Structures are given as structure tokens and as C-alpha cells.
# Entry
Amino acid sequence: MVGFGAVAVLSLLALGAAAVAWVFGPWWWLLAGPLLAVAGVGVWDLLQRKHSVLRNYPVLGHLRYFLEDLRPELQQYFVERNFDGRPFDRDVRSIVYERAKGTDAEEPFGTERDVYADGYESLVHSMAPVAPPDEPPRIRIGGPDCTKPYDMALLNVSAMSFGSLSANAILALNKGAALGGFAHDTGEGGLSEYHLRHGGDLVWEIGTGYFGCRTGDGGFDQAEFADKAAHDAVKCVSLKLSQGAKPGIGGVLPGSKVNAEIARVRDVPQGKTVISPPYHRVFATPRELVRFVAAMRELSGGKPTGFKLCVGSRRQFLAVCKAMLDEGVTPDFIIVDGAEGGTGAAPLEFADHIGTPLTEGLVTVHNALVGTGLRDRIKLGASGKVATGADIVKRLVQGADYTNAARAMMFAVGCIQAQRCHTNTCPVGVTTQDARRARALDVADKSLRVERFQRATVAGAQQIMASMGVRFPAELRPHMLRRRVDPHRVRSYADLYDWLGPGQLLAEPPPDWAQDWAAADPDHFTV
# Structure
């Protein structure tokens, strides 16, 4: 690493200047003193384990922390946009960092948000708040065909692959999950030793490339899948249909990142760019999708099995619901990914214009399952810019049973949003396969930050629910979340969306759903 060489050269210069000062007189100490001080700072930066930036950029990295100290005056110039692209109101990264470091504190001077702006959302507190339960709630994942149910936490690590993330980042996330008792989604990049080393609970995600259970010609290897899914750490299996960052296209891992280890984990050639297909080879219709989910559950030994998608056509999802009804088979869970979310790199046109935002996607899937009488068999996860306790509660109100976070978890392990993920030159060792850069990420320290962030955020969600007079997620209702629709009107989610009754689509579809329900075909993905 350049930092080692720079500190070594600086140390030699400092020692040389000190020797000259010793021999030729005290005036030389004016040069030697500062050089020794800076060299000492550089050596300390290389040895400390708390700050990844300083380990990779000794001495110079202090400029970043200097600017952070000046932040109240300079934040409008030096801080990126907030998660949802609105003008800056309160830096979400700061919330994550503070909770990860265990320094979360109350803020003075009230809200920094414009509460009269269109789109402002608020949760309805109660005049009779309650005490939160002593233990965070767990959500049992497992339908009637599942023999090994799993109790999911309210907040978990969302899908991020080894290869996209460094080995140390995966180790820190998984160890944090093990410490905190929550789940870690592997992403579609395969099941590596770094996912298994610390024993954290895993959701093994299988994407269109079938990495880690892939035949030589890129198909699905049943035997390899069954062997790996049997591992005790694998608690659930998830089939990725699409992701919020880039629905409708596959992922890309540059060849510069595909070293021998990643090639082995993914069952792909070393040094060649890996492109995931945009579609699956193992199914072509909603009915075949449902059957394949059932086959995956059987191959995994009865573990909870589901799929993840960014919602596009409501008609297509209704077709999947019809296939479930026809086949008598349901997934144990469905993860809804929002178009506004995702840590994966994507073309700007896709990031800005393709896919359904999480709120609409989640409400659509929840209503479709309720309307077909399937909701009580399937748990819903929500993934897409979940970073605070309020985010969790909002998603629960909108129909989710639990949530997953990706970007916030990256912040917890030290991501500074340098946006150099695809270059293999991540300055803090989170998204690089350069071992010299990745060493900056100290697993022992960052795993504790992951655990602290998750614990504090779930506690925040519980505290918010208690202020609403609610102890458990199942007690939340749509009228408890409100949105300002213009400067003069506020409407609750109970009024903003049509909420279907159990089995309503089977009995008498409401007018807004009738056309899509009639056209939905379990044997065709018709848009």
C-alpha cells in the first residue's frame, strides 16, 4: 500500500533530520521536530484499527475528520444528498455512524425537515403510549410446507455479495449478525467461507447466474445446491428474480475483481468479467416459478424458501398468485425490493426510470396476497433504504413483516460513499478485492459496529411503536401513518391506498383490480 511506503520515507527523513540536528545544532530541530511528529502520526495511523481511512491514507486521512468536525458550518457543501434524493434534512449516514459507534444521542433544536412540504410523512403517536416489550419481536418464517422454520429479526443484513464486497466486509457483517442474532443475506455471489466462518445466520440467495450451485454451462446444479443448503448456518434460501437497483438486467462483476478465490466461490473463470443473465433458465412461466420454489425447499431439506423481486407489472404478480393457488404451493417469504434502493451499480436510466418504489411495491404485494387469501402463509420482507427505526415502522405499517438493510449496513462497516466500488480502489476496504486496501477494515471493530447499529435501530423502532400505543408489529394499521399531499391536506395510508379484504379477489375484485386479475395468466408472464 502506498501509505506504508509514504510513512517509511517520511520516517527515514525525520530520523535523518534528527541526526543532522543532533550533530549540527539546535536550529535543525525546527525541521526535525515537525517531521518526527508527522512520522509518529503516520505510524500510529497504520497501527490503529478504528479508522479504515487512516489505515489506508495515514496523515492525509485526518483532513476528512477535520472537515467532519466543522460539519455544522460546512455540511451543505461536503455532505451528499439524503437517501431519498430530497434536499438535505438530516444526514442518515450520521445516524448510522453514531449508532454503530454507540454514541447515538438526542438532537437539539427540533426537526430540520419541512413538515409542510408535499410528501412529508409522520407516524401517529398515542395519548396513551405503552412500554415496549423487554425483547425485540421475532417473525417466524415458515409456511405449511416448511419443516425447519426460522425466527427472523425486525432488521437484517440485505443482499450484498462476496466479490462486490471484500472478504473483511463480509466477515464483519456476518460476525455482527452472529453477535446480534439477526440474519445475513449472502447476495447472489455464492456461499463463501467468509459467510460461514463466524456462524451468523444466513439467507442464501440464488440469482440468475446460479453462482455457487452452477453447472459448467451456467445452469442450476441441484446436487451442489442441496449440499451447500444443508449447512447449519443456512437458515433460509432465497431466489432472486430482480433487484431494486436494476430490475430487468443482470449484475456485472468486473474481471479485475474476479480473483482465484471469487472464481472458485462462484464457479466461474478467473479474471473474466461476470455478467448475470437478466432472466432465469429454470423457469419461464409463473407456474414453473412456483414449482421451482417448491423444488428448492425440498432440496434444502425443508428450510424456508422464498423469492425477492422489485415489483414491475401488477398483472404478472397476480399471475404468480394464481399459480400458487392452482399448484397449492406457496413460498415461505417474499422480499420486496424498492426501485429507490440497492447498493449495486446500475445504468443511470435504470436507476432513475425502471422499477416500482418500495412503498407502492410493498402495498401491491401485500394486497395481492391478502386478496387471494394467501397472506397468512407468506411473510413479507422489505428492502430499500431502510436505515432508521422510523423506516422500519413505516414499512411494517405498509405491509411488511420484517426489513433488510444494505447501504446502512455498509455505512456501519465504514463505507464513506466514495462511489469507487466498481474500480477496486475503495479507500476504506469495503468494496475491493485488493488485499492491501481491504486490510484497513478491521473485522473485530466493525462487527461490533454492525451489531450496535442493528440493536439500536430495532430499539428505536420499538420505542416509536410504544409511543404509538403499540407493543407488537401485528398491531400496526395503515391509518397510523400519514402523508402530506399538499400544503393544506394530510391523508392517512388507510385513505391513500385501497386495502383489500381476505379473499376479495377470489370473490369480487374491486374495479381497480378487476382488469389485471382477469388478465393474469398462471402460464404466461403477460405484462
Remarks:
- The mean pLDDT is 86.
- The chain has two domains: 2-79, 139-518.
